[in-house]
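Reply to thread "Modeling small-molecule complexes from scratch"

Following up on the discussion above, here's a worked example others can learn from. I took a protein sequence and the SMILES for zinc ion and predicted the complex. Inputs first:
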Amino acid sequence: MAKLTYYGHAAFELVIDDRKVLIDPWLTNPKSPVKPSDVKDVDLVLVTHSHFDHVGDSVEILAGNPNARLVAVYEVADMIAGELAKKLGTSKDELFNAGRVIGANIGGPVNLQDLGLKVAFTPATHSGVGVAAGVVVIGKEGRVYHAGDTGVTMDMRLVGEIYKPHIALLPIGGHFTMDPVEAAKAVELVRPLVAIPMHYGTFPVLYGKPEDFKKRVEDKCLPTKVVILNPGESYEFDYS
Ligand SMILES: [Zn+2]
């Protein structure tokens, strides 16, 4: 059984195929029920883009979990590797050579053979160092799409068609990303079995409400179930 836990803002812990994956781990966000030092036995850290509320506590988590590796778009990976190298007293090159940091990009999946997982970065309409992205985690127990920060884009239809994510994590707060109107359209494009709203309620400027998103998706009569997770809550699944 795989388990997805929400830590507030865009931060999720995904335990899938017995591997622990953290996505956009800003665990010092005002809604987070955990501290960076609380997360142990991390296998993989994924960062969608370079903004502080997504890079979050990646460096501390990577430093505290010696078996954890980072995968991100190359420029974002390089930026985090620089900080991590400083903290560990090593060099960026050593981190890349040792496979602790893996630079990737939007395209086909990255094979993480020893973990038995693949990750695919997907287009996001947003800003940042390098290019902002979303990411799909592909495991035997299911496929989870974290959209990152993004506006709604027709590319989401391709994400749905190619990766067929069972679960989509979608920003709904507005101002910097989709709000419930665009996010409901994104559900229509991606067609996941489950949609989980994120990136709302952290700052006053993020006005989108999860109940509004849920109603808008339900009004479209799609086969998608909206699951609202409060920070600290989990959703369990097994689509194998
Ligand atoms: Zn952002």
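What I'd highlight from this example: The longest helix spans residues 74-88. The mean pLDDT is 98. Questions welcome below.
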